[in-house]
Amino acid sequence: MTNYKITKESIFEVTNGGLDVFRFYIPDIDQYTNSKKHFADPGRAEKTPSSLIKKLSDNNYVVNDFGDDGKWLNAIAYVQKREHCEYGEAIRLIAERHGIGTENDIKSMFEPDVSTSDAAPDQNDKEWIFNHAEEVAENHLRIIFSERTWTYIENQHRSLKEDERKEMVLKHFRQILKAQHWHALDSYTIIKNRKAITFKSTEFYPIFRIEEEGKSGERFSKIYQPKSKDKSKRFFYHGKFDAQFLHGFAQTQKAYQDLVAKQEKDEDEEDKKVKPQLDEIIYCTGGSDALNFYALGYHVVYPSSEHFKLTKDQIFKLFLWSKGVFTCPDLDYTGQLQNHRLCMSLVSDQCLDIRTIELPEELKLKRDQYGRPCKDGRDFLKHFKASDFANLVKVAKMYRFWDYELAYDRSGKPKFKYGRPLYEYKLSIERVINFLVRAGFGRRKVNEETMEFIQIDENIVRPVRSEDIKAFLLNFLRGRYANEDLLNVIHKSTNLSSNTFDSLPVLDPDFRDFDQKSQYMFFQNVTWKITAEGIEEIPNNKVEKMVWESKILPHKVRKPETIFEVSKVDGKYHIDIKNQNSMFFRFLMQTSRVHWQKELEDNLADLSLEEAQKYKDENKFTVFGPNLTEEERYDQTLHLINKMYAFGYLMHRYKAESRPWVVFGMDDTPQKEQGSFGGTGKSIFFKGIRAVKNLLLFDGKNAKLFEDNHVFEQVNINTDVVYIDDASREFPMERTFSMTTGDITVNPKGKTRISIPFEQSPKLGITTNFSPDDLGSSTMRRILFFGTSNYYHVDKSGIFLENRQPIDEFGKEFWSAAYTESDWNDDLNFMAQCCRLYLSWPTWIEAPMGNIMDRSLTNNMGFNFLSWAEIFFSKEANRLDSFVSAHYALEDFKADSGLKVMTSHGFNGKMKLYAQLKGYKLNPKPTQNKDGRVLKTIEELKYDSREKKWIKTERRKTQSMIYLQTQDQELTDNIYDPTIDPSDFPIPVPGTEKPNF
């Protein structure tokens, strides 16, 4: 493979001498190209414009900011300055922005040149061949050493002429690499399967070999490829790797020994009594940081791998050799956590004396070459000066928050108590605060009036009180067997109070344990990351998501094989059940058996008791009952999958504007009569959500719930689900829909109201025996229905052969004290896989809506109207597929129902619902006039109270009509005449008895 190369000449040619590049950063640059007018460089805040642009004799443009460093910069150098990147990265940015070369061409510039050939006869498999470069190229040095490190070294040679200075700077950096045992490779070759695979460095892809000698005296090498896109291949070892090797340790020891030798040679006898020490040693996170800090004059060591642990002996020697041992952790979660563990380590008490160099948080706002937040020392020296780093070193603090010395009496003699020397202890409040911050303590804003103390322990967050913080300090010291006198200083200190702790920083932990494509579940022993692809187990100490301690589920789980698989073939859903150990899974199966009565009662009626019982035992938990039709089995299957999908939707905390659903649980049984058997299991569905999520319960029987201005005062950003249980017919369900699509206003009593934004607000669930009043498309797209059969029921009327409740089949209450850890494990795994089902399915899985819609329509029109309409529009009444006087129909309904008042508008609304329920067309389009009304001019109808029948007045009048068109019937001109129909039901005169129908 030959690497593509973009030259600076080709860049200037394509970008109009670099002018197009300047224009990207300075949009109005063209007005300054042919003048000597100064302009303000957008890359630097300045009050007086001090930059110029000019065109050179080679037709290339250069810019000079005289208010900054006063150097003329071509387009490439200007990009380096603005982006804080090395030459190669500037080339790539310009190429990508201005279309120089293809994407693959640009990519190849930052890859090694790889070639393969046959191995020589004398070359053995697994043999490595290193081809060292004669000297390290400048481009490669600039990849390792940051911009401000380079400036620092240049300033050390500022007295030299430019060419001499450049040569001295390059020599200086090459000496640094040599001193740290870094050697540039031109290439390395691996012999494998009789092939010689060679990886050759390129202009923008350096390869380094770090040669070391382990304890056994054997040499090993670390191969470092800083530009490798694959992090796993960025470095690897050759030879007998020493896992406890500390890079830089030998060099630091020699520097200390040289210092001691110098004192032995130069100082007088009195000075020799005090051993000299190096000013500082920085324990770095990696080689790049170490080289940059070493170039700034600091002594450095760095671990051989991320699994390295400092030994007690190594820590002792580092403190012996230096006045202070420092760390400079990366700003990311892993770097901060590893540094905290080191400073809190019980390996050596001296760990508390390690000083932490704190890189500024603003560094994370800047991006590295891959678009990731900057985080380490090398990144810092791209954007900040060496003097800025020196200041960070100056203020670095140790974890030890107390000072101590021997106590002396007035005569200058050491004090003793009970035969032991006494020490005087003094707290440093600044270091107390630093220690607490490092231990995760801080303050969190609850609302405008309230702050609370919290502690972040790795990824676990817990609320604490000021006395808890003081207790933490005491327990920390007791755990290290601290002197009793020191403990008493803590006890007696009046500074360790809430007033002092108010100096702790305000923290804003991100508790989002989810994103658009994933959901986390936290347990005592492990964390699960749920995605469409599967469930990943993550050790708790590797999790970067913050979680309230109270939301860690108190169970130890193990992840089993797949419990079910859902697919869709030819437009129909299928479920392949692998195991049904989960009781909750079995419960959802039973509540999906909408044809259970036919299956377990009607279809078993002709069998013997033994045969019927055998069938029930063999098909105890299933939706695939063999004595049901294929359509009935699919109906139950779809109910089950829909419930699992709805449960998974509530499990996933992410709120998408495209899926602003209310999960709406209803009974899936046709409601032909008023009343409900109850106990069908809708509430247990949400009890399952409550077992794993933060659910807030509201009483749906309270129709005036939303009249309370403080109804949502308990809702906060940690509330996952708001659940309205058993909503009554009068409950204003439409008020809940706005909660799913917008922000929620919380108005706590006596406090300032706040608004919880949509993306942080909880999801919503409702169970009810009644439907929304409005069944229009705007309402229906906001509702994710699920239906429960009446398989579980309490029936005192004798309609069913037996009563049945979940405890009868499972022998225990769901998620109660009777639940074993195995029960919990099975249910939690099932719930997690329901979440995966939701995440893996692009569109919603809707429940069979037949019975649900029937119940909705029946509830909305009312039982009285349905009973009347079933008779009034029966086939025997001859009123279907005919024009019927609306006045006549309304008066007939009023008489039948006993209502004295019913508006035409209300009556028409019920007629629409009845037509929808029966599958009829109400007032088809051809029957309507231009304004949408159905009118006929016929003889006026009047009710004769004496004769108790309808009569005609012989006066023609235009009247409003009703037309119900049944399926597959053509429209007719028939007009129903109640005066001649013998099936007519007369209306009584007010005050008389109702006719005997």
Return Rg in Å.
41 Å
- Average predicted confidence as pLDDT: 89
What is the tally of beta strands?
Answer: 41
First-residue to last-residue Cα separation: 97 Å
Walk me through this protein's architecture.
- With 997 residues, the protein is of the alpha+beta class.
- It has seven domains: 8-108, DNA Primase, Chain A (Alpha-Beta Complex), CATH 3.90.580; 120-239, no CATH class; 246-399, Dna Topoisomerase Vi A Subunit, Chain: A, domain 2 (3-Layer(aba) Sandwich); 404-501, no CATH class; 519-551, no CATH class; 564-852, no CATH class; 862-965.
- It is built from 31 helices and 41 strands.
- The strands form eleven sheets. Strands 4, 5, 6, 7, 8, 9 and 10 form a seven-stranded antiparallel β-sheet that branches. A six-stranded mixed β-sheet has the order 11-13-12-14-15-16, with helices on both faces. A five-stranded parallel β-sheet has the order 32-33-36-31-37, with helices on both faces.
- Strand 34 and strand 35 (754-756) form a beta hairpin.
- The longest helix is centred in the middle third of the chain and has 22 residues, at 630-651.
